[in-house]
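Reopening this ticket.

The earlier resolution said the output was attached, but the attachment link was broken on my side. Pasting everything inline this time so it's all in one place.
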Amino acid sequence: MFGKTYPNPEFRRYELHRVWVVEARIKSGYRHLAPHRIYYIDEDSWISSEQTDYDKNEKVWKLVETYPIPAWEIGAPV
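Inline output:
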């Protein structure tokens, strides 16, 4: 299932979910590598499943994708 540094795309499973799109910008007067971010938060689990980071020139700098895993013993995804 896993390559050396990331999950093998052949084994990923995607399905439609309702998400909340949250856009965040850094407060005026502060600096950050990603001063603008967009989070995609799954409405069922409240886990941020996707994130897009933009650099200071408003170009996409980094994409983040998370894979929630069900933890049956606590009754929640982690």
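Reporter confirms the inline version is readable. The chain has a mean pLDDT of 89. The beta strands are 19-25, 36-42, 48-54, 60-65, 70-71, 76-77.
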